[in-house]
Design a protein that fits this description.
With 447 residues, this protein is an alpha/beta fold. The chain has helices at 6-16, 26-34, 54-67, 100-114, 121-135, 173-176, 180-187, 205-217, 258-272, 279-288, 321-337, 354-359, 382-391, 402-416, 432-442, and strands at 45-49, 72-75, 87-89, 96-97, 140-144, 162-165, 197-199, 222-224, 229-234, 237-242, 245-250, 296-297, 312-316, 342-346, 365-370, 396-398, 425-429. The strands form 3 sheets. Strands 4-3-2-5-1-6-7-8 form an 8-stranded mixed β-sheet, sandwiched between helices. It has a 6-stranded mixed β-sheet with strand order 12-13-17-14-15-16. The longest helix has 17 residues, at 321-337. Keywords: ATP-binding, Folate biosynthesis, Ligase, Magnesium, Metal-binding, Nucleotide-binding. Its EC number is 6.3.2.12, 6.3.2.17.
């Protein structure tokens, strides 16, 4: 008897069904009906949408809930290295990524129920999430939207405990529209009549207005960043304040000033969903939160050993101009604390605004090495990506791989170092596909 493997089952589905997105709720609704409508048998759901920060907010919400002793399921996408990362099943003492046999069985059952009908693999994997989360008891489930909101496969949840919409900016314009108001309409599609809504910090007033107007039209209890809650750094501490009072606690474990607003949105959403949050659990969450591949120091491994001696190597999968601005601001803060020359190793896919992303680093990055994203069919050729970086005012050159770039930096900088300049700060960036490949090659996949 052949043992089921989740990866084999999913790869088989990828060979049968189209890649990418086909935004509609008809196919997922049909499939869930055949499965007994598991999405109607979920623990209270926190539904998270947005262009930037939704993964971080999901990680913070999970940390807050778990710090207060609750069992929490978490669905995120895409994964970095292994499909299992999309499904974290709650357990006493903290959740764990789904075991391979459990995932393989769920995938096989969902595929059998679909009976070969037209569908996307993302829709099948979303149905797998509903099956897994309905079959394993928990106090809450945090479900991250895949793309957009209105027609995303996760948007069959009839009455979420709370909907959180994180910062909206430009991304996936081919699917969601080329104006921020149009993108906001798609994100606002997860708002359900009468269900609590939290609006995170918004860089565009037009997007914020769409979200607030939608929530008010649907008679939703509404909590808005900057009006009903806010957070800021003061004397090396994070101050969170809402209508219930004030928390004075440690700064988030996740790097970057933007994570303060992300953490605040998560706290406000957990409270809006009906879960009390105390200072002790909020502070513990700030200290324990983990979100791999987002402004993370590259763990010690096969790749990290290739760089210049004493180098500080960061990885981040942000891939649009808004993400670039947040990452650049975070690295500017690192520069204020500990000056080092900054180098980028970047790979991107062709659906992103590459020049817009690089523009955030003008005047900061000394040089950019561009690499191919071999794990994606949509990877931008490294020479073309170097041209996009130069359009943004950066010095750039194409190289064959991240390992190649690290070795070039080591050979160039170590040979010429005279002790007057500190070792470099290196950011590997531009694509979650690239960061997943880096973590795999480094031997340090998410756990």
């Amino acid at each position: 008897m052949t043992t089921l493997s989740a990866e084999r089952e999913i790869e088989r589905l990828l060979s049968l069904h189209p890649k990418g997105f086909d935004l509609s709720l008809e196919r997922i609704t049909r499939l869930l009906e055949r499965l007994g409508n598991p999405h109607l048998n979920m623990p209270p759901v926190i539904h998270v949408a947005g262009t930037n920060g939704k993964g971080s907010a999901t990680a913070f919400a999970r940390a807050v809930l778990e710090a207060s002793g609750r069992i929490v399921h978490v669905h995120t996408s895409p994964h970095l290295v292994n499909w299992h990362e999309r499904y974290r099943l709650g357990a006493e003492g903290g959740g764990k990524l789904v075991e391979d046999a459990v995932l393989a069985d769920a995938v096989a059952r969902v595929a059998e129920a679909n009976a070969g009908e037209k569908i996307t693999v993302f829709e099948i994997l979303t149905a797998v999430m509903f099956v897994l989360f309905s079959e394993h008891p928990a106090d809450a489930a945090i479900v991250e939207v895949g793309l957009g909101g209105r027609f995303d496969a996760t948007n069959v949840i009839p009455r979420p405990a709370a909907s959180l919409i994180m910062p909206i900016s430009f991304d996936h314009e081919a699917y969601l529209g080329d104006r921020v108001e149009l993108i906001a309409v798609e994100k606002a599609g997860i708002i359900k009549r009468g269900c609590p809504v939290v609006v995170g910090q918004q860089p565009f007033d037009a997007a914020r207005e769409v979200l607030v107007d939608t929530a008010e039209r649907l008679a939703c209890p509404l909590t808005v960043y900057g009006e009903d809650f806010l957070a800021f750094e003061e004397n090396g501490r994070m101050i969170y304040q809402d209508n219930d009072g004030l928390f004075d606690m440690s700064l988030p474990q996740l790097a970057g000033r933007h994570q303060i607003a992300n953490a605040a949105a998560a706290i406000a959403t957990v409270k809006a969903a009906g879960f009390p949050v105390g200072l002790r659990s909020a502070e513990a969450a700030m200290e324990r939160v983990v979100w791999p591949g987002r402004l993370q120091r590259l763990p010690k491994g096969a790749l990290s050993e290739l760089g210049p001696e004493g180098a500080e190597i960061w990885i981040d999968g942000g891939h649009n101009p808004g993400a670039g601005e947040a990452i650049a601001e975070a690295l500017a803060s690192e520069e204020d604390r500990s000056p080092r020359p900054l180098f980028l190793i970047a790979g991107m896919i062709n659906t992103k605004d590459q020049t817009g992303y690089f523009r955030a680093f003008e005047g900061m990055a000394r040089h950019v090495y561009t690499v191919p994203v071999e794990s994606s069919d949509a990877g931008v050729p490294n020479a073309e990506l170097a041209a996009r970086a130069m359009e943004a005012g950066l010095s750039a050159e194409p190289v064959h791989s991240v390992a190649n770039a690290l070795k070039l930096l080591r050979d160039t900088l170590d040979a010429g170092r005279d002790g007057t300049e500190p070792p470099p700060r290196i950011l590997i960036c531009g694509s979650l596909y690239l960061i997943g490949a880096v973590l795999a090659e480094n031997g340090t996949p998410p756990r």
